[in-house]
Design goal:
Layout (H helix, E strand, L loop, with lengths): L1 E5 L7 H10 L3 E2 L9 E4 L5 H8 L3 E4 H8 L1
Parallel strand pairs: 1-2, 1-3, 3-4
Amino acid sequence: KSIVFTGTMQNMTRAESKKKAEDIGMKVVGSVSSKTDFLVAGLEAGSKLKKAQALNIKILDEKEWLELIS
């Protein structure tokens, strides 16, 4: 599964989020495409969020992301 992070995370840094994703076998990518499985949207998410919405990609907020990895 591939995942993109955008916006500001409050409970963990983006680097920590990326490491957690990689630790559970996900591929962290920098841009949204039709091959993206998840987008984690933090505060002030911008164009990546809009693109993910247009492509009907599963969007998680930070709370949902933390629940997924716990």
